[in-house]
Structures are given as structure tokens and as C-alpha cells.
Amino acid sequence: MLHYLILLLFVAPVFSDADKKPNFVIVLTDDQDVVMDGMTPMKNVERFIGSEGITFTNSYVTSPICCPSRASLLTGLYVHNHMTKNNSLSGGCYGSDWRLKEHRVFANALQNAGYDTFYAGKYLNQYGVKGAGGPDIVPPGWSEWHGLVGNSVYYNYVMSNNGVPTHLTDRYLTDVIRDLSISYIENQTESQPFLMVLAPPAPHQPFTPAPRHKGFYKNTTTVKHPNFNIADNDKHWLIKMPPAPLPESLLPELDHVFRSRWESLLAVDEMVADVVGALEDIGQLDNTYLIYTSDNGYHIGQFAQVYDKRQPYESDIKVPLIIRGPGLGKNISDPQPVLNIDLAPTILKLAGVDAIEMDGKAIDLDVKQVIEERYMLVEYYGEGRDGSVDPKCPWKYDSDNLAQCYPAYECKCQDARNNTFACLRHIAQRLSMKYCVFDDHKIWFQNFAELYDLSEDPYELNNIIEEEFQAIIVWYNNYLSKLLKCKGTANCDNPMS
Ligand SMILES: *[C@@H]1O[C@H](CO)[C@@H](O)[C@H](O)[C@H]1NC(C)=O
Ligand SMILES: *[C@@H]1O[C@H](CO)[C@@H](O)[C@H](O)[C@H]1NC(C)=O
Ligand SMILES: *[C@@H]1O[C@H](CO)[C@@H](O)[C@H](O)[C@H]1NC(C)=O
Ligand SMILES: *[C@@H]1O[C@H](CO)[C@@H](O)[C@H](O)[C@H]1NC(C)=O
Ligand SMILES: *[C@@H]1O[C@H](CO)[C@@H](O)[C@H](O)[C@H]1NC(C)=O
């Protein structure tokens, strides 16, 4: 009996430690790129997550736009399976179809497994608007809900606090998210594991820094890679629309946007340091996976575009992804190809929770010597809006198909209904290719395509579709059409089998 007791005394704490499930904290920024050095302002992220964990250098999103990409991250599904195709209600962005599927958001599985779950900040762009049921709705899966109504802004917004809409006029949203997060962490009891998603607006338009950070990067100008502000004639017609290159007079505005984005990120970086500190204070830092990522990338001036996302190039589809947590290596750079749909299955696996059907696959967090070959799918449905072309712009002939053409930017259009494309991003050891097909066939009876060899042409200057062997193009085309119909982890990982 005495033996048994002593054994219990010594063994019990060890068992309870091992049984304690890990916590998860995801920081999801809005439009943060890696290609234009978008991580430069994130010194705390680098110090507390990057140098303590793994930085994924080939991390991509399933769609270069907020709502479809967020729906993918939340469900682990490709766009053709969750069907949130654009940022409008009619395109599935918090529309009625999405709400029927919302129980597939991975937070539900964690909650069912005993996790307490917390969300603060931007969710899907149309969450909380009238046509989507209003801000009284608390999406399923969240025990503690602080969802922003509508799209990213920095001031003057409505936040749904557990279904109670609260209008805040002059409190900087990132700081509000930080304060809620700290308070939530301080309230945690030791016994229950938790999931937190922190979704600040930065660095999304209107790029508003916190007052304390204004002017921090006042001398910074846009990154000018070889594809900056060049007319490139082998690309889809939208990219070739005039003016290309952009006139010199526009460049100061691009610089202004560039530095404002960086300044708006400084409050996010402070938030990360404070969250890490709070986790440490409650003794949970070593039992927590911290994941830092963004919903899509961004371009400023690439191929003479103004500033936006919605294009198939690396600037727009590549995102930061950094993970630290129990058992992971420190200060590691990992080139394995990964997608935003991999995060939900990765988290469920780390939590020891049964998988629900997803298209992504759990990331192998052991560092490997060789890159494992992978074909990843990117889907984008071009947006167009009747009457969205400013009347001062000269594009009268097809204005219903175009979008975001403003006189302030020389009427350079950012999107069009037929800027609809699907890309295959093919990465292996010493191989890095991208094959994209545009949906322009209704007029031309053939699809316009772009093919890049990124191992030789990292800035996507040369569309080699005319030069590549026909057999390779046929293979890519075949693979792409299979991936566009894939369903489930195994099938999406190997649709040709
Ligand atoms: C933490 O607990 C306090 C006291 O009960 C409460 O007022 C506060 O709202 C809680 N914080 C969060 C984020 O739930
Ligand atoms: C920014 O530029 C101004 C004028 O060119 C210069 O005086 C100042 O020292 C620069 N500031 C920084 C932080 O580099
Ligand atoms: C992390 O690795 C980089 C490059 O490998 C190195 O320069 C840096 O000093 C390391 N940082 C830490 C905190 O070990
Ligand atoms: C979004 O998608 C829906 C459904 O395909 C479409 O009706 C709507 O026009 C799209 N929205 C925009 C702004 O293009
Ligand atoms: C695509 O849009 C362009 C410009 O608006 C137009 O000329 C072309 O007819 C459109 N093609 C299709 C298939 O809609």
C-alpha cells in the first residue's frame, strides 16, 4: 500500500503533464506578403516564434484573396469544396451555404474534444452584415467570440462580443484584439486546453498605423525586384492593360502604401510579444503551439500593377508561416511545400483529435533533408461589378467585366470577371514550376496559359508556355483538371492515382 502511494505521488504529476493537451494560438494577418519583405517589421515574431521554431519558406494559399483563403484555412478544404468563391455574400462569403457548412470549421472538432476556443478580429469578410444574419450570430465552434463585422478597418467598427454588437469608434482594432487576448489568457484555468485565433486587420487597406507608429518607416520605399513596374507582354490581358509601365508620378503613392503597411504591422508585432508574455506568466508558453501566418500576399508595382492581390504571381499567393511549439526544432528554415489547408489537419493531429474530412494534410514537423514533391492548387474567381468602372476611365467597351479601375491610378484595373484562373504550383528538390490557365475560352475558344520555371526565373519574367515540351504541358493540364475536382486528403495529394 505504501509503495503504491509513493508510486502515485511520483508518477501522477508526470502523467497529468503528459495528458495535458497543447494549446494553440494562431495569428492570422490580412494581406501580409513575404515576397516584398513583408516580415521585416516583425522583430518580435522573429524573436519569439521564428528563432524558437520553424519558418516555412514555401508556404502558399489556395486563393490569393481574403474570404476564399480564410474559408480554406478554417475548414482545411480547397475552394472548389468549400465554395466560398469571392468576397461577396453571393459568392459564398458568409452566405447561407457557408453557414450550413460552418460546423466543418476545425474549431468545432477541438471544442468537441474539450478545448475552450477564442476568436478575435476579422473572420469572413461578410460576417455580421445584415444579409448574413447580423452580428448577433456567434459562429459555431467558438466559446469566446469577438468577431469584427465586415471587412478589415482600424477604427470605427462593430465587434460582436459573444453576439452582443458593440460599436467602437476610436479604439485601434489591433490593440483591442491584444487586450481581449491577454485578458482571455489570464482567465485560463490550468486544466482546460485552449485554441485562440487572433485576426488583426493589418496590413490591409486603408493601411492605418497606430498613432505611436506613424512615421516609423518614413524613408522606406517599395521593394524593386526586376519585375517592378515593367510592361510584360507575355501575360494575361488584364496585366497588359495600359498604362504599363505606370507613370513616375504614381510611384510616391506606391511608396506611401508600402511604408504604411509596414507601420500598421508594428502593432501586430507588439501584440505577439504581449501574448507570448501572458502565456509565460500563466506557465503555458512551453505547452502552446504559436502559428503566425496571413490570408494572402500582396503586390505593389509588380508588372506595372498598382497595389492589390488577386493575381497568380508569387507576391500574391505566397505567405509567411512560422510555427513554434512543444517538441519542435528551433530557428529552423524549412523549404517543404505547404498550404493553408494543411493547418487545420496539422492542429487536429497535434491535439490528438480525430480527423474530419479535409483536403489538406498534416505538416510533418520533423525537419527532412530533401523536399518532398508536391503539386498544389490555387483557384481564383475574378470579380467584376456592374458600374464599378469610374465614368472618368476610358474603358467603356466592357465595363461590366472590369473591377477597381480608378482615375487616381490612371484607370489601371485590378480585376476582371474573366481574371478567373487555376494554377498548379509544383515544387520538388531542385524543381519549382507554376502553370496557370485562365478562363477566357468563351471568346477565344482556347485557354490562355502561363508557365514559369521559378528555379531559373524567380520573378516570373518569362512565360515559357510556347517553349516548353508539349508533353509536359499536357501532363500539367491533366494534373490541374484532376486537382480541380479532387476531394479528401489522399485524392488531393495524389489525384492521378
Ligand atoms: C476574464 O475574466 C473577467 C472576470 O470574470 C471578465 O470580466 C473578462 O471579460 C474575461 N475576459 C475575457 C476575454 O473573457
Ligand atoms: C530620413 O531621410 C531624411 C532626409 O533625407 C534624413 O535626414 C533622415 O536622417 C532619414 N531618417 C532615417 C531614420 O534614416
Ligand atoms: C538563427 O539562424 C540564423 C541563420 O541560420 C542565425 O544567423 C541566427 O543567429 C540564429 N538565431 C538564433 C537566435 O540562434
Ligand atoms: C461573386 O460570385 C458570385 C457567384 O459566382 C457572383 O454572382 C458575383 O457576381 C461575384 N461577385 C463579384 C463582385 O464578382
Ligand atoms: C474578358 O474581358 C475582356 C476585357 O473586359 C473582354 O475583352 C473579353 O471579351 C472577356 N472575355 C470573356 C471570355 O469574357
UniProtKB/TrEMBL annotation:
<protein>
    <recommendedName>
        <fullName>Sulfatase N-terminal domain-containing protein</fullName>
    </recommendedName>
</protein>
<dbReference type="Pfam" id="PF00884">
    <property type="entry name" value="Sulfatase"/>
</dbReference>
<dbReference type="GO" id="GO:0008449">
    <property type="term" value="F:N-acetylglucosamine-6-sulfatase activity"/>
</dbReference>
<feature type="modified residue" description="3-oxoalanine (Cys)">
    <location>
        <position position="66"/>
    </location>
</feature>
<keyword id="KW-0325">Glycoprotein</keyword>
<comment type="similarity">
    <text>Belongs to the sulfatase family.</text>
</comment>
<dbReference type="InterPro" id="IPR000917">
    <property type="entry name" value="Sulfatase_N"/>
</dbReference>
<dbReference type="InterPro" id="IPR012251">
    <property type="entry name" value="GlcNAc_6-SO4ase"/>
</dbReference>
<feature type="domain" description="Sulfatase N-terminal">
    <location>
        <begin position="22"/>
        <end position="353"/>
    </location>
</feature>
<feature type="signal peptide">
    <location>
        <begin position="1"/>
        <end position="16"/>
    </location>
</feature>
<dbReference type="InterPro" id="IPR017850">
    <property type="entry name" value="Alkaline_phosphatase_core_sf"/>
</dbReference>
<dbReference type="InterPro" id="IPR024607">
    <property type="entry name" value="Sulfatase_CS"/>
</dbReference>
<dbReference type="GO" id="GO:0005539">
    <property type="term" value="F:glycosaminoglycan binding"/>
</dbReference>
<keyword id="KW-0732">Signal</keyword>
<dbReference type="GO" id="GO:0030203">
    <property type="term" value="P:glycosaminoglycan metabolic process"/>
</dbReference>
<keyword id="KW-0378">Hydrolase</keyword>
